């Protein structure tokens, strides 16, 4: 970083024509400019500027170094403008993860609505029912269902949904004989008390309340 500052000072001295004018442009004292030039020439072990009381001239090494300083300045301005532009116009790759059940049905349609007009945005979607480590997997945004583990990441609730267990009208089994229904994203097993609701259109079982894990082990273990 110190080298970049010295290169900036040197470029301004050359373009301003004198140490005095460069100091005025950079809003520093002449001694600061002189000290920076002296340190730069000492580190490069060469003379960059021949200076008298009335004029200054570049040495061959100074001309070559000045060209590199100009290239550095142009690259710095380009980098600055590109990043500033990205803040107003989305650009680049965004890596997003979501559970399999939500990705195709909810996440992808929503992303298409938002990013369809931004052609410079590349979406990298990761289907996974596990709560992946964001840093380890280089993930920018995680959409999760259920409770998230405590963390320092910014979190926002974006919606809610209700699970409904449905079956065909021809099914004749006893639903109450299956006490446990668990999703992969749940932190621990829960027991759902089901109520059988029959309509002309369909036969479905809806969750009426949720009971915390019972002392007995669930049947799948």
From TrEMBL:
Occurrences of domain HTH lysR-type (ranges): 1-59
Pfam families to which the protein is assigned, alphabetical: HTH_1 (PF00126), LysR_substrate (PF03466)
InterPro entries linked: LysR-type_TF_proteobact-type, LysR_HTH_N, LysR_subst-bd, WH-like_DNA-bd_sf, WH_DNA-bd_sf
Keyword DNA-binding attached: yes
Taxonomy, superkingdom: Bacteria
Single GO MF annotation: DNA-binding transcription factor activity
Name used for this protein in its record: DNA-binding transcriptional regulator, LysR family
Protein source organism: Enterovibrio nigricans DSM 22720
């Amino acid at each position: 970083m110190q080298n970049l500052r010295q290169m900036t000072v040197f470029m301004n001295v050359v373009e301003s024509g004198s140490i005095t004018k460069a100091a005025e442009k950079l809003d520093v004292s002449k001694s600061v400019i002189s000290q920076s030039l002296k340190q730069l020439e000492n580190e490069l072990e060469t003379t960059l500027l021949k200076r008298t009381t009335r004029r200054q001239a570049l040495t061959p090494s100074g001309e070559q170094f000045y060209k590199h300083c100009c290239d550095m300045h142009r690259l710095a301005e380009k980098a600055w403008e590109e990043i500033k532009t990205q803040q107003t116009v989305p650009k680049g790759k965004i890596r997003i993860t979501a559970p399999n059940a939500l990705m195709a049905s909810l996440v992808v349609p929503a992303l298409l609505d938002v990013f369809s007009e931004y052609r410079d945005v590349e979406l990298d979607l990761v289907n996974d029912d596990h709560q992946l480590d964001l840093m380890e997997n280089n993930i920018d945004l995680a959409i999760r269902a259920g409770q998230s583990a405590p963390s320092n990441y910014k979190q926002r609730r974006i919606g809610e949904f209700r699970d409904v267990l449905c079956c065909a009208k021809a099914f004749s089994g006893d639903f109450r004989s299956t006490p446990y229904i668990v999703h992969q994203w749940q932190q621990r097993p829960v027991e759902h008390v089901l109520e059988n609701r029959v309509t002309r259109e369909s036969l479905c079982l809806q969750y009426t309340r949720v009971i915390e894990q019972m002392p007995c082990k669930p049947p799948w273990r």
